[in-house]
Amino acid sequence: MSQSTEVEPSTTAAPRRTATPVTATRRRPARRAGTPYAFLAPALILFTAFLAAPIFYAGYLSLRKVQVSGLGLGSKARTEVWAGLENYARSLSDPDFLPSVGRVGAYGLIVVPTMLGLALLMALLLDANRTREAVSKFARISIFLPYAVPAVVASLLWGFLYLPRVSPITDVVEAVGFTAPNLLSSDLTLWAVANIAVWGGTGFNMIVIYTALRAVPTSLYESARIDGASEIAIAWRIKIPIVMPSLVMTFVFSLIATLQVFAEPMTLRPLANTISTTWTPLMKVYRDAFTRNDIYAAAATSVIIALATFILSFGFLKLVGRRAFNQED
Amino acid sequence: MKTKFAPLMAALTAAALFTGTACSSSSDSSKGATDPAEKVELTYWSWTPNMDKVVAAWNSKNPNIQITVNKQDGGDAAVTKLLTAVKAGSGAPDIMQAEYQKIPTLVSSDALADIAAEVGSVKGKFPAGTWNGVTLGSEAVYGVPQDSGPLMFFYRSDVFEQNGLRAPKTWDDYAAAAEKIHQANPKQYLGTFSATDAGLFTGLAQQAGASWWGVKGDAWTVDINDAATQKVAAYWGGLVEKGVVDNKPMYTPEWNAALNDGTQVGWVSAVWAPGVLDGSAKDTLGKWKAAPMPQWDAAAPKTGAWGGSATSVTTQSKHKKQAAQFVAWLNSDAEALRLLATEAFVYPAANDATSALTSPPSFFADQPDYYTIAGEASKTLAPFTYGPNVNVAYSAFNDAFGKAAESKKAAAFTESLATIQKTTVDDLKNAGFTVAG
Questions:
Q1: Window B:364-393, CB contacts with A under 8 Å
Q2: Which residue stretches does the UniProt record annotate as biased composition, category Low complexity (chain A) (predicted)?
């Protein structure tokens, strides 16, 4: 619409206006045409080499399989052939696949609301306490710190705390006179893994939300106070709606992290009987690729996970997008 | 604002995708026919500590065949690296340490060369059961056995004395001892059933007479759910159900603590166990004793194996003949065996090993006959054939027995075997192998 309004007046002045530019472009076409591509080249090459090519290669592998002749011993006994959608069918019908998806769903239901709820609560508390900068800074850093701990290290650390015999928690609980539950038993494993994710992720999300809160001018709160709003009402009616875009973004990040949960259960697996090699979909990919030496099935499952991530993330953004971003559009 | 997410989404899609390593297969195995006087330099992948000291002895005597040891992280990591190099067509070493259970996988990926012509003559220096592991029952020889891990039984002699027990001769004795010890002190267990150690369970099945894979003409056979393995699974399931042995995995911080504080008072393990006990049960030094394995039939003693590896020549080596010469020397020469035992702390697979091992390991200093027991045990190794998808069976074992151990039901233990059998057969068929039966 805006284009047509601009074009119309130019047609009247066409003869005089176009004369010079045309000759100008004719004089040095080759050099100019290449310039943007030269600037784009590094990004394009990196994108192709490290993103597009692997994606296409994974897609290609997902349609292949290996054929073995005889006992499969010795050279030339294995040949790669087209498999069509066979790998996808095998992936989806694998008896371990659906349970792992269900497990990740349950894990997400625990992790995402808990983590974002805690992050929002902490961000609001820190923001309410704007006058005491030193206290707030210390609290911010200590809440953020677990995020700086790599997931594998965090899982090992929590693993020690979960194992009854080496856990100081068990000692304390039993000293008080209760029997400590085995956190790695089949009922509690999911919660034990979720706890590590919440511990590690809350700080990051808190910082994102807190930063959004700090951008809000204080005059808004002052006028609300003059109108007689309590701190809780300010938080509920002003702060939360204003940081909604940040909440949406952290939700999408968390959703994706949930779908890709891998390091925590993988690290805890040797410590307990309750975490199988296909506990999450990504662990199944790992098992297929590196334990079963079946990169074709692994590629097919990866493509399925990627598509699911894509659909869920975009679907969610589409669903909340209009409402969440109304103020900014 | 919405458009901000587009690149993000693109990046995330990529992150979710598994990126396989580029590979193209071009494995033209070059013949190792070179001038014997020519000087060659060979690389050797091994994860055995101090292997370079053993190799130094060879290098000083063979100026024309110089070996460089390339230290590896461990069996699994080295195999993954080797398979990648084979797929890529270059990058593999000349010589490779290969665990027995990985050999069929490596051979079926065309990673190991047949060196029957060069090393066939040393066959007589090894126990038949061990040699079978490098031939896969065929005419070919895919390596020379280096070390073996005959199963033995380790127990806390002080706890056994307190309870008036003697080292169990049969599995019935073991069950009775486990019950007595646990009743006397409910915190103590004579052992644990570890669902994360498929290798140990395989050894126990081997002892009972199982051989999970086999070759029948041009087809593989899979026999994981056989009577012998059923017997072993039912036995351990029964002990776990009764609660007289623990159901937690081995090699966890908790298990280490249990060995050290005297709640785990026995361990069915292999000849290399002193090294592990030395690391995790330091406080119990001098209280442990080694004994031969409890038997199913005391009249016909048998044992299984847990661990052990061979030294193989890879298909990518350009000097296979020289590499094979070194491999044969390393694992059968008297001086090499002595160095392997004293410097690299391995238990050599060769029959002559006992002559190289004169003093017991330091953790069992009070037991001068330690290596005599080990030597007797390795003579009774039951034959066992590994197949081309041991990894698949082992990971199926982890999952199925993990659930069974958690449930503490003997029936779940025996049912698990059917699951493992099915998974293993399905995988072979899916990979295009012919499976008989």
A1: 388-389, 391-392
A2: 11-24
